[in-house]
Structure formats: C-alpha cells, structure tokens
Design a protein that fits this description.
The chain has about 190 residues and is an alpha/beta fold. It has a single domain, classed as Class I glutamine amidotransferase (GATase) domain (Rossmann fold). About 45% of the residues are buried. It binds glutamine (GLN). The site of glutamine has 12 residues, from helix 5. Glutamine binds next to helix 5.
Length: about 190
Amino acid sequence: MKVGVLAVQGAFAEHEEILSQLGVAYIELRNGEDARQDFDGLILPGGESTTQGKLLRELDMFEPLREKLSKGLPVLATCAGLILLAEQISNDSARYFGTLPVTVKRNAYGRQLGSFYTEEQFGDLGKVPMTFIRAPYVEAVGEGVEILARVDQNVVGVRFNNQIGLSFHPELNGNRKIHQMFLDSINPT
Ligand code: GLN
C-alpha cells in the first residue's frame, strides 16, 4: 500500500510521520508528475485552502487529483483539505474538488479565537484528541454522508463512501487511531 500526501503547503510532514510510525509507504505529491502516479490513498493536510488551491492549479496537480478523487480514490482530508473536498463553501465563492457532498464554513470559529483543543467521540473509535486551528465546520450534509463527530453541536467529522473529512488536525496529538481507520478502509489495487 502506498499513500500520496499532498505536500505543497501546510501540515503534511506530521501526517508523513504518522504513516512512518504505522509502517506505511507514502509519496509526497509536489507536482503534476507526482499527482499522476499510482497510489492507494490520498491525504489532504491542513494549511490554507486558498493557497493550496492556487498551488494545485499552478503545479498542474488539480486535474489529475480531481480525476482520481472522482473515480473513488480513498482520501483523508483535514481542515483546509476538507475545504478542498467540499461541494459547497458557504462563505467563499471558491470551489475546488467538490467530491464530498457537504457545505462547510471556512474559519467558522473566527480568525482570532479559532484555535482550541478538545477530546470528543469519533465514530466508534472512542474519544480522540482534536486540535482546531482556524478550522471550518460542516454546516450541512448531503445524502449518504455519515456524521462521525460533533463538537458543541457542530459537525467536525464526516465520511462519504471512502472520503473522510475532518475540521480538526488529527496528526498533532500523537494519536494514530484516525489514520489507522483511514488505512483500514483502503483496498490496495
Ligand atoms: N483557515 C484555513 C482555510 O480556510 C484552514 C485552517 C487549517 O487548515 N488549519 O483554509
């Protein structure tokens, strides 16, 4: 199994560290050639969605990744990554991959006070640590979207087929359960 990690901006190194700890091979995706390679799953890290979206287009990565996602490539998308996947962004006119039928709100907790830590139930994994950094949350979900986690009524974790979208950063607190769940969901071709 090999996982592609989008490595143009943001917190990708922390995801790579967890994959290494779990003994999973990965490739860093930095250009169009990387994005066209074969890999079994994709991690879209947190960072700045506008910057990531711009770089994806400039580096000729947007189309190959969009095509793979629309064909069902398993993906773990965190924070800015969730924004890239969302079908709708309620407070931004930008659209990116749009393969996850949810509406997200960017910087939903405000820009200044938007960073916090909590622990909440996540699917059937029990409580997991959750670090939020100027995070989006999910305002509405489409048909077939499973809600995996809520914090203060707001939806912060969803799954739709083999796409997992998270508001928070699961890679920052030394807990590997969510990555393991993602890897378990991948069927290597
Ligand atoms: N605020 C960022 C955005 O809107 C996301 C923040 C993050 O990924 N931690 O793109």
